[in-house]
Each structure stands twice: as C-alpha cells, then as structure tokens.
Write a structure and sequence with these properties.
InterPro entries: F-box-like_dom_sf, F-box_dom, FBXL15_LRR, Leu-rich_rpt_Cys-con_subtyp, LRR_dom_sf. Pfam families: DUF7885, F-box-like. The chain is an alpha/beta fold and about 220 residues long. It has helices at about 5-15, 20-25, 30-40, 40-50, 65-75, 95-100, 125-130, 150-160, 175-185, 200-210; strands at about 55-60, 80-85, 115, 140, 165, 190, 215. It folds into two domains: about 1-55, Monooxygenase (Up-down Bundle); about 55-215, Leucine-rich repeat, LRR (right-handed beta-alpha superhelix) (Alpha-Beta Horseshoe). The protein contains ten helices and seven strands. Strand 2 (about 80-85), helix 6 and strand 3 form a beta-alpha-beta unit.
Length: about 220
C-alpha cells in the first residue's frame, strides 16, 4: 500500500462518527480484540472506552482478569445491568480489593444480576462492600465461595428486590443467616443451598416464612 493510499484509508476511518465507532466496538466480546483495537490510535482508544458505556451485560468468565483491569472496565460500563465475574478456567485473580474498587462504579446501583460463582479469593469484606450498593439486585450467584452469615445479613439489608440466589456449597453460613435472608427478602422466589451444611429441618423453617419459596437442595 502506498503512502497516499494509507493516508486516504486513514481519512475514511477518521470520518466515522465516534458514536458509531463505539457502537460497532460494543459488539466485540473478546477483551483481547478490544485491547488491540484500543492500541490503533487515540480515537479508537476513546471508542473502546465509550463502547463499554453501551453495554448492559459484561462477562469475565473464561478470561484471566485481575482487580485493576476488571474494576477499570466496570467503571466505564455505566449502563451495565448484568455482571458476571465467575471463576474462569485460567484461575480468577479477583480479590476483596477488586470488589471494593468495583463497588464505587456508577453502574452498581442499577445492576439486576451479579455472579461471583467460585470466587475463592473473596471474603465477606469484599462482598459486603459490593452488595451494600446493589439495591436493584434481582439475581445473585455467590455459590462456591467462603462467605458467612455476614454476607447474608448484608444481602438481606441491601437487596429488597432479590428474586433468586445461589449459595451452592457455601459451607460457612448457618441456619440463622438463611432465616434472616428469607425473612427480609420478601420477593425471593428461589434459593439454591445444595452442598451446604445446614440441616434438613432448616428447609421447614424457611418454608414457614415463605411457603412459595423454591428450595434447591
């Protein structure tokens, strides 16, 4: 390609409205591809940044992400409704520090779905910080983590719209935490407590509070 042809092609790209460029980039799911696009030029870097603001759903499952990169992307995604930072096959690196940074993002109060499945690097400290701002939450998957009743109390206090929750293999919570959760989350329809250590008679306690609750043992 001659210099003249390259210049002409560059000019054509430059005429593409930034909003349209951001819209096109928002359709790219691969974070690797987005990182490469961001390195094309300053304009494309801005387009990538703006593209995250157009997304209603983000999933980091299957990607090797750390606290800083995840928080940086979520902070740009101000229109986000669904956030999935489940454990990936590469080994998730997200910790309480990452959850605390994510909790300050503008989108958190509008999130309707969060998945933290299998995030063994997080504790109650990070979960409570994040959940305390997620007042619109309807669906939560926090299975396979080491949370305790402290997180359940925070969910019960901050998430009145909660409809479904997965606590699969959360073996450090107790009957007391579940009772508080079901008592305060009046819209809760389904709860998964498979693999936990709560006794079977706890089911009766929960159903006495919410007879229509679907319990997945």
């Amino acid at each position: 390609m001659t210099v003249e042809a390259a210049t002409a092609e560059e000019a054509e790209i430059d005429r593409l409205p930034i909003d349209l460029l951001a819209h096109i980039l928002s359709m790219i799911a691969s974070f690797t591809d987005l990182a490469q696009a961001s390195g094309v030029c300053r304009r494309w870097k801005l387009g990538v940044k703006l593209s995250f603001g157009r997304r209603e759903s983000l999933s980091f499952a299957g990607w090797k992400m750390d606290d800083d990169s995840t928080a940086r992307i979520v902070r740009h995604a101000y229109g986000l409704k669904e956030l999935d930072i489940s454990r990936s096959r590469w080994g998730c690196q997200i910790t309480d520090r990452g959850l605390c940074r994510i909790s300050s993002a503008k989108c958190i109060g509008n999130l309707t779905s969060i998945s933290l499945w299998g995030m063994t690097g997080i504790t109650d400290a990070g979960v409570v910080q994040l959940i305390s701002r997620a007042s619109s939450l309807r669906h939560l998957n926090i299975g396979g983590t080491f949370i305790t009743d402290e997180s359940l109390f925070a969910i019960a206090k901050s998430c009145p719209q909660l409809k479904t929750i997965s606590l699969w293999c959360c073996r450090h919570m107790t009957r007391g935490g579940l009772v508080v959760l079901v008592s305060r989350c009046c819209k809760l329809k389904s709860i998964n407590i498979w693999g936990t250590r709560v006794p079977l008679d706890c089911f009766a306690d929960l159903l006495s509070i919410s007879p229509d609750l679907v319990i997945k043992p």
